[in-house]
Amino acid sequence: MEHDILKRSLKFWIAISKYYLSLKDKKYFEVASQIFKSWTSIWANIREAQWGQSRKDFVNKMSIALKESYETLYWLEILSEWFDENVSIIKNECEQLVKILTTIVKNTKQNDKFYT
Questions:
Q1: pTM for this model (two decimals)
Q2: 99 with 91: CB under 8 angstroms?
Q3: Long-range contacts of residues 49-52, Cβ cutoff 8 Å, at least 24 apart
Q4: Domain residue spans in the chain?
Q5: Alpha helical stretches, state H, 1-116
Q6: Cα-Cα-Cα-Cα dihedral sign, residues 79, 80, 85, 91
Q7: Residue 29: what pLDDT?
């Protein structure tokens, strides 16, 4: 599962990076800047979690990635509602990442004595 989330989050990072460039071309600088910060953190924290010093550190990094995924969804909703951007494909993938990250965090906590 962890390998899948790495590949999937990297693909998401690439897709949204291309979208970010189109936002800058449209001069949506403020929103582009905000979404840049949240989505780059998703992949970075997932990668960092793989080298966590403990299960607790792993869960912490994955939880940050989850939080940043929710923030990215927020910005995608803003783009959709305020700027009439078609973000359905990217938004759907981000929602899938939220589900996967939620499962990883939940299962890791359930399977670790530290959290029970």
A1: 0.87
A2: no
A3: 50/2, 50/6
A4: 2-115
A5: 2-25, 29-49, 55-83, 88-110
A6: positive
A7: 87
Locate 52 and state its tokens: 């966590």
pLDDT at res. 4? 84
> Nearest to residue 76, comparing CAs of 21, 5, 27, 20?
20
Residues 74-92 pLDDT 10s? 999 999 999 999 999 999 9
The CATH superfamily holding the domain 2-115 is 23S rRNA-intervening sequence (1.20.1440.60)
11: amino acid identity, one letter:
K
Largest separation between any pair of C-alpha atoms in the chain = 50
Question: Is residue 54 over pLDDT 80?
Answer: yes
- Decide if 20 contacts 35 (C-beta within 8 A): yes
According to the model, what pLDDT value does residue 3 have? 62
The pLDDT value recorded for residue 111 is: 85
User: Could you give the C-alpha distances from 115 to 20, 57, 59, in angstroms and in order?
Assistant: 38, 12, 10
